[in-house]
Amino acid sequence: MSDHNGLGDKVKSGVNKAKGEVKDQIGNATDNHSLQAEGKKDKAKGEAQEKVGEFKDRH
Predict the structure, then answer these.
(1) CA 5 → CA 8, 23, 46, distances in Å?
(2) Were both Cys, which of 3, 23, 24, 46 would link to 17 (CB 3.0–4.6 Å)?
């Protein structure tokens, strides 16, 4: 399935950012640096997906 309008990327972005935030917060609360790092990675992936979605919407 082809996604030309960026909506799919924006949805995935929101999911990854939320998942990353949860992992980051749990990692912080439990002093689990590995889980925190994984959360930060997921949030960064979500930010990148959001940019892709915005780019697709403009073009």
Answers:
(1) 8, 29, 17
(2) 46
- Which pLDDT tens digit goes with each residue over 9-57? 999 999 999 999 999 999 999 999 999 999 999 999 999 999 999 999 9
Write the single-letter amino acid at 29. Answer: A
* Angstrom distance (rounded) from CA 18 to CA 49: 13
